[in-house]
Amino acid sequence: MPSFGASEFARSNLALGAATVGPVVSDSVDTPTIETFAPLLETLFRVRNGPGNDQIDLRLVELRPLGRQPHAPRVEPFALEFAGPADPALEQRIYALEHGTLGAIEIFLVPIGLDPAGGLRYEAIFN
């Protein structure tokens, strides 16, 4: 499989028409997997480039395998769901997130609806 830098990987997924792009990462995480995020379930990720440059905390609330894809660039795609505050709402785009254990990572987040706690839910698909 060819090796991509973070920006090349993002552009290649965008060129393929991916609804969500993953991963666009820093040097701290080259190719995250669902196992990368499993120990981080129910922990906070800080969005560094939110609306008005606000710092917003998102809680990782769900990890979902999307089924094995033997001929795809990512053989085992997965989805992450984050819960965040109702205000400010994040629009669909790439955000710089920071986590105390994982470090810095850029993820394409898509708002997907309301969180039962009254905030908003966001999804990131790593395909």
Description:
There is one protein chain. The protein has 127 residues and is mostly beta strands. It has one domain. The chain has two helices and seven strands. It has a six-stranded antiparallel β-barrel with strand order 2-3-4-7-6-5. It is globular, with a radius of gyration of 14 Å.
Describe this structure in a few short sentences.
By secondary structure, the protein is mainly beta. The chain is built from 2 helices and 7 strands; from the N terminus they run αβαββββββ.
As a whole number of angstroms, the C-alpha radius of gyration is 14 Å
Coarse morphology: globular
How many β strands by DSSP? 7
Order of helix and strand elements from N to C terminus: HEHEEEEEE
- Pairing-aware structural class of the strands and helices? mainly beta
User: What fraction, in percent, of the residue positions are helical?
Assistant: 10-25%
Uncertain stretches: 1-28
Mean pLDDT comes to 79
> How much of the polypeptide forms β-strand, as a percent range?
35-45%
- Largest beta sheet, briefly? 6 strands, antiparallel, barrel
Could you give the order of strands across the largest sheet? 2-3-4-7-6-5
What is the count of structural domains?
1
User: How many distinct helices?
Assistant: 2
Report how far the terminal alpha carbons are from each other: 14 Å
Name the features.
6-stranded antiparallel barrel; disordered N terminus; 127 residues; mainly beta; 7 strands
In terms of topology, how is this protein built?
Layout: H1 6-15, E1 24-25, H2 34-37, E2 44-47, E3 56-65, E4 78-84, E5 93-99, E6 103-114, E7 120-126
Antiparallel strand pairs: 1-6, 2-3, 2-5, 3-4, 4-7, 5-6, 6-7
